Amino acid sequence: MAITVVPVGGEPGAAGHRDTEGAWTGVRGVDDDGAVLVRPDQHVAWRSVRGSRRADHELGEALDTVLGRSGAANGGC
């Protein structure tokens, strides 16, 4: 499955989209090192308030849950 990553930042030269007015910062509900997973219908499916050493694992678990595969990671329980 393809996932589009869109970095948003307030600093000049930030990768992705620049948030010059701080609007995104005000509504995203996460710290600068956090993440938001948005469904194609624009609903927020998951948020990680802060960055983590296990970010890839946490995103994988979130995707499994969103896609209804949450039992797959733990043996179907």
Which features does this protein show?
two-stranded parallel sheet, disordered C terminus, 4 strands, alpha+beta, 17% strand
Written overview of the protein:
This protein is α+β, with helices and mostly antiparallel strands. The chain contains 2 helices and 4 strands, in the order E-E-H-E-E-H. The protein has helices at 23-27, 55-66, and strands spanning 8-9, 17-18, 35-38, 44-48. The strands form 2 sheets. A two-stranded parallel ribbon has the order 1-2. Strands 3-4 form a two-stranded antiparallel ribbon. A hairpin with a 5-residue loop joins strand 3 and strand 4 (44-48).
List the helices and strands and how they pair.
Layout: E1 8-9, E2 17-18, H1 23-27, E3 35-38, E4 44-48, H2 55-66
Parallel strand pairs: 1-2
Antiparallel strand pairs: 3-4
Q: Can you write the helix and strand succession as a string? A: EEHEEH
The largest β sheet comes out as:
2 strands, parallel
Rg computed from alpha carbons, rounded to a whole number of angstroms: 14 Å
Order of strands, main sheet, comes to: 1-2
Tally the helices.
2
SS class:
alpha+beta
Shape: globular
Helix content: 10-25%
Mean pLDDT: 79
- Content of β-strand: 15-25%
Number of strands: 4
Give the low-confidence spans: 73-77
Instruction: Report how far apart the termini are.
Output: 24 Å
